[in-house]
Structures are given as C-alpha cells and as structure tokens.
Amino acid sequence: PCGALCSIMPSKFPLWPGPWEAGPRCWPKRFWSELQSLYRSFSHGHLASGLPLHHPTGQPKSAPSVMLFPPSHEELKANKATLVCLISDFYPSGLTVAWKADGNPVTQGVETTKPSKQSNNKYAASSYLSLSPDQWKSRSRFTCQVTHEGSTVEKNVVPAECS
C-alpha cells in the first residue's frame, strides 16, 4: 500500500524503483523517512546533517567527470574551431553547462546535448563551442563550467599551449 500521502497527491509521486518498494507509486521506506527528516529540518530553518546523499531512487549522487578538448589541427586547417566538453559519470541527470572566454560568458555557437544514461546507470552529456580559428587564437583561455547539484566544476584550455 502506498499510504495516505500518495493517494492524496498521486501526481507528485512518479514511479521510483527501489529494493524496498511498497507499491508502484511509493518510495522505499528508508528514503521516505530520510525525506521526512529533510523536510522537518528545512521547515525549521536548518540543514539536516548525517543523512546519506541519495536521490529518491536510492542511487547515490555522483559528481561529474569533466574533460575539455581543444580544436584539432586538422579542424583548424579546415577553417573551423570546435571545443568539446565531455561530461560523464554524474547522477542525477540535471546539470547546466556554461562557456567562458577569458572569464566572460559565451552563448553564441554553444550546443549542449541532453544527458543520456550510461551502462553504469549514471549519465553523460557533451557540450560544444563552435568558433572561427581567429576567435580561438585571439583569446587566452576558454572555460567549460559544469554545475551539478549545486557544485561547479571548471576546466580550462589555453590556445597558446595548443599550437
């Protein structure tokens, strides 16, 4: 049985798979009690401590691994310059990617993929910054900034070191 809260607000409780599932719309009891503890702590104005960092599915949160690659020499010869930011092994799937050139935000020429599930049940995504070779050479540093679950990871590439 799901319990009174699930029957009152079924749209708020999607399917959550887990080893201790009590019903198709219920969270495992262990995580439900942790959620209640968090709710009580936040509603009283302080942060709960000592609770495991789990997503409601029960899978532990995982910070992303980020790698940033400069344009290849072949691409530069073809009058293109694409920076590639590979993001892997993160959970849950929500994240944001921002690009910077010399510390300033860049939005033009940016394409970021939707996260896709890896074989280890974590997620991967990629982000691309398309530039001209002149734009690439005229800057001293490019940054891929990934924010996941409130934490930020930055990777930099320096064009002068890539010649």
From TrEMBL:
Q: Does the keyword Repeat apply?
A: no
- The parts of the chain that form a coiled coil are none
Claim: Disulfide bond is one of the keywords in the record: yes
All residue ranges annotated as the Ig-like domain in the record = 64-158
State the SMART domains in the record.
Answer: IGc1 (SM00407)
- Keywords, in A-Z order: Disulfide bond, Immunoglobulin domain
In its UniProt entry, what is this protein called?
IGLL5 protein
- Organism for this UniProt entry: Crocuta crocuta
